[in-house]
Design brief:
One of its GO terms (biological process) is transmembrane transport. By secondary structure, the chain is α/β, with parallel strands linked by helices. It is 30% helix and 22% strand. The protein has a 6-stranded mixed β-sheet with strand order 6-7-8-3-9-10, sandwiched between helices. A 4-stranded antiparallel β-sheet has the order 2-1-4-5, covered by helices on one side. It starts with a strand and ends in a 37-residue tail after the last helix. 44% of the residues are buried. It binds adenosine-5'-diphosphate and magnesium ion.
Length: 280
């Protein structure tokens, strides 16, 4: 099977705390998989282990069949630049002392080092809704939302096969969140890349993800095609999440902090809720 990303039984620990407790997933080319769940459930820890920023305590992460080395993002072998990460805070992705055109050029060079064509930095800025002549600016000369667009352009310029985006739109103003998410999906699909899209905004997830994984306290409690999970949630936690959405059109944002009075059943393992499939 030609999986782009294959994660098996991933465990991430910080001292005694098990932040990720046996997460498995696959992503195929051209597929957007969303990872949702309340703050602190282990989404970012999962993402960092997938791109090799954190060493898993157990389990494996394979990209195109090869185990992803834990090296940090800047010291990777060229083939692993095909995995790009976009962080919630664009300041984590960008160097404040370098013109954005040069930073996007780093992405272009990473693509070229893998034998791929990539556009000029100005063209990438236009692709994310900015102007080509902004290449000579420094990050501080952009608004927060524009900076995130630059970070996205930089990641895309590397012509990734897989983008791991950890709450990439949370820092944007509300009016541009859906359009930037839509743009990321579009550019990803055009390039035949896959994406792991982490968000606590369920309305955006519903619009952009082919499949969704619901995480609760370090474990996946429900997974399957987005339409199926939305239309007919099986796990009690997923049901509670979707029921808490205030609008009938599915708009809604997950709570910032785990519920202190969470019912015991939210942590239960419900076999039918995992790897759900639409009946043929
Ligand atoms: N570097 C770290 N050191 C210690 N604990 C951490 C670290 N990063 C995350 N954690 C803890 O691991 C758990 C999962 O965090 P995280 O993966 O950031 O969740 P999420 O992204 O879903 O909000 C939380 O309890 C968090 O406090
Ligand atoms: Mg996080």
């Amino acid at each position: 099977m030609s999986e782009l990303l294959q994660v098996d039984d991933l465990v991430v620990r910080y001292g005694n705390l098990t932040a990720v407790d046996g997460v498995s997933m696959t992503i195929r080319p051209g597929e957007v998989l969303a990872l949702v769940g309340e703050s602190g459930c282990g989404k970012s820890s999962t993402a960092r282990a997938i791109v090799g920023m954190d060493r898993p305590a157990d389990g494996t992460v394979r990209f195109r069949g090869d185990e992803v080395p834990t090296l940090g993002l800047r010291r990777r072998r060229p083939e692993f630049t095909a995995v790009q990460m976009v962080f919630q805070d664009p300041n984590s992705s960008l160097n404040p002392r370098k013109r954005v055109g040069e930073q996007i050029l780093d992405g272009v060079r990473a693509a070229r080092a893998r034998g791929l064509e990539s556009d000029e930095p100005g063209t990438w800025l236009e692709a994310v809704g900015l102007q080509a002549d902004m290449v000579s600016r420094y990050p501080h000369q952009f608004s927060g939302g524009q900076r995130q667009r630059v970070a996205i352009a930089r990641a895309l310029a590397a012509k990734p096969d897989l983008i791991v985006a950890d709450e990439p739109i949370s820092a944007l103003d509300a009016s541009s969140q859906a359009s930037v998410a839509g743009m990321m999906r579009q550019l990803c699909l055009e390039a035949g890349a896959g994406m792991l899209f982490i968000s606590h905004d369920l309305s955006v997830v519903r619009l952009m993800a082919d499949r969704v994984m619901v995480m609760y306290r370090g474990a996946v409690v429900e997974s399957g095609p987005t339409s199926l999970v939305w239309g007919d949630p099986v796990h009690p936690y997923t049901r509670a999440l979707l029921a808490a959405i205030p609008h009938p059109d599915g708009k809604g944002v997950l709570p910032e902090a785990p519920a202190a009075d969470a019912p015991e059943e939210w942590a239960s393992r419900v076999e039918e809720a995992l790897n759900r499939q639409i009946a043929a």
